[in-house]
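Thread: quick sanity check before group meeting

JM: Hey all, I'm pulling together slides for Thursday and realized we never actually wrote out the predicted structure for the chain we discussed last week. Dropping the sequence here so it's in one place. If anyone has concerns about the input, flag it before I start.
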Amino acid sequence: MKARILGTAALTLVSALGASSAMAQSSASAGEVIQLEEIVVSAQRRLQNLQDVPIAVSSLGAADLENKQIRDTIDLIREIPNLVGNNNVGLGSSNTYYIRGIGNTESIATQDVPVGTYVDDIYISRQNANNFGLFDVERIEVMRGPQGTLFGRNTTGGAINVIMKKPSTQAGGYLEAGAGRFGSIDVRASLDAPLSDKVLTKITAYRTHSDGYVTQLSTGNKLNGTDAYGVRGAVRLLPTDALTIDLSGDYVDQEASNLINRVDPATGKRVSTLGIVQGSLSNYFTGSKANNKPGNETKNWSLAANIGWEADGLTVNSITGYRDTTQRYYIDSNPAAPNPITTGVSPILNYGRHKQFSQEFKLNGLTMDDRLNYTAGLYYLHEDNKTDLGTGVGTATGFTVSGDRTIRNDLDSYAAYAQGDYKLTDALTATVGLRLSREVKDLDVQTNAGARGPVLDTDLIEASGIPTKLKNSFITPRFALSYQINPDIMVYASATRGEKSGGWNGRALSNNLFFDFKPEKVWSEEIGMRADLLNRTLRLNATAFYSEAEDVQISAAYTTAQGQRIFTTTNPAGLRNYGGELEALWMPIRGLTINGSIGVQHARYIDISEDVEIQIANCQAALASGNATGVAANCNRGFVDAKGRIARPVRAPDFSGILSATYEIDTDAGAFRPTVGFDYNNGYAIGNAGNTDSTDGSWTGHQMLWNASLAFEPSAYPDLTLSVGCKNCTGQNYKVSFLSASSIFLNQPMTWDVRARYRF
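JM (edit): ok, ran it. Output follows.
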């Protein structure tokens, strides 16, 4: 089956290649002189032309980010094929990403992310603060498929790498201010101030605020607003021609919530029937979290150092990173209309402190008469997580604490890696890579002193047969062959392994339910083409993939040693997915750039566990006999749908398409730059049970969002840019997350703003 799928894809690529080559000859004869610029990426941990890289990678430069209004990392979902994402439930600072059907929606620190986020090659361990404001970014690269060899932490889905601008040798900067819908205000500024030709400095800051687009009916308060500020300083030291030292530090304070809301049918505005108010739980829980405000706030600061030394075709880097994140939130995902409950129906109170330190030594070199290009390194990551977590159940007559505990979990991750690209001929290159990894995790759980609710304790967890220390050693290789047909066309084939460590069910409410789960593993094979055609006015990049994931970490039925049937995160199945991505960038005439992509995939669960097979049989039997209790216990739960079938994997639409265009028009008054774009998908499951033909809300249906902007640079003031833009311009409302038929989270409504940017 695999051979047939990849063979069909190969024929498709070859056909496209032949047609495109013919078009290129026609264009060349027409004598076109405009050409697309080369895009440089670091997807293989060294700088390369995008068209030479045998990896499925998309890159967005500073101009793309500005024209397409990409101001937070969550905005990337509008631009990358087969990438689906949204804010996590309740948490506007946390993004959940799925690439080619692999991802997760859990932000608790006892689980790892399958799609990693990096800033300047430094891994961000926790998902709870990975949606950050983008300011002074050079480019963003999104790698699709497992990143098991070269990048800091093994990921099974992919990686997002944000590369910041380095201090400039020229003094200058910019100041930008904007205002828009829902009382939004946004101010950003950057200053390059070289102290000498050996000491370059940069400081960047931003401040953003919005009142919120949701009205809390019980209080009249505005919800789901933002209030954030951040500052980043960078220094580049150039003591010698061979030595470069990059130092940076930043601090970001961000209030950003995603509390559940709905559309008022009478007014069309967003409203919330949540009743939660600050202080309503102070008599029930311990610690400072008991007085958290409704919503979510994160504070994080980080330090980074990249020391690079070059000599005789050899580059050595020492990359050091430290990040400290504090998070507080008070959320409730179950509205209680028409009588709001001030404590919340199923509230969660959280105070978390998350620290990480990473050290990497990386070596890049060129040898054997420049035929072997190699990368090798050593990597270490330590995490120290502390989560003070309170949960309970509220009713109109009282409140019950279901848990008030502190969870501590640590990680030590060690890795050694190497990859070599060897030119077998001038056109044919073979790539072999290997990563050796070892990870050790520890868990400690204690009920808080004076807390109500069940007693949770590490010794009692161990007594129930659950290990509180996990060790995992694994090997993740990569193999690839690339062939340069001519200077403008390259084809490749690759196979890559990725693995994500296991963890624990950190939200358990009894000692015998803190189950550990196994690592998630994936093999992914690709064939691809990278082509610059029509005299390099058309860039056409195509990738076909086939992947099989083993022991996917998702929620499903599980039978405990005591015979108890529960639903929790475990490893109930594998996941097979195949499909492809086609990305095109075309400049048909001077000033007009058209960008488009198509993503197709066919994701299905395989290798179903015995526990889930039993659940399916029980569900179907209950449906046949009309046993309502059996239906409720086994159907529409885990990833078994309401009819007793295995559900579709979540956030894996069969088809998605993205199209945008930017046209720069020069006039006597100045330059106008309109940009318009839309993204479309044909729907996907947002609940594990994924009922495509039911009305419970766990299927999104078709989605199409439009975005547009217009920038103007007046001739009289060439350093000034004025712009106006909108996101979700037609105000479409779509479901993005699902907990139950009454707990469905929607996308953000239409927003607009006007901006002025002055460069100096």
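AS: nice. Residues 555 and 569 are 4 Å apart (CA to CA). Confidence is low (pLDDT under 50) at residues 3-32.
JM: adding both to the slides.
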